[in-house]
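Annotated sample (chain length 120).
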Amino acid sequence: QVQLVESGGGLVQAGGSLSLSCRASGDVASFDAMGWYRRLPGYQRDLVATITSGGTTNYQGSVKGRFTISRDNAKNTIYLQMNSLKPEDTGVYYCHTEGETFGFGTFETWGQGTQVTVSS
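Output written by the structure step:
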């Protein structure tokens, strides 16, 4: 069974910074793409940033230049450094991973979510 343990988040003033981390564990063949999604108040969960095991990144347009996703493959951990935070970044941030099992195809798993609140 794959587990994702998220940490970080919290309350910060607009213009400030926060960082999130997410560690994946489980008896699987590989963790492939990993990423962060968020659910803003009144909206569905949406992509923030993803990163492949090879380091290729993808960002939602509104966070480009402000957020940076990184990955430590040895630790199966991803990080999200969030700078210049805005009140509209307030929401629940979810870690996500997908990969390959040993002989049972692919899998995907979501973290429990962590709250990020940016005050104006």
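Annotation: DSSP finds no helices and eleven strands in the chain.
Annotation: The chain has a mean pLDDT of 97.
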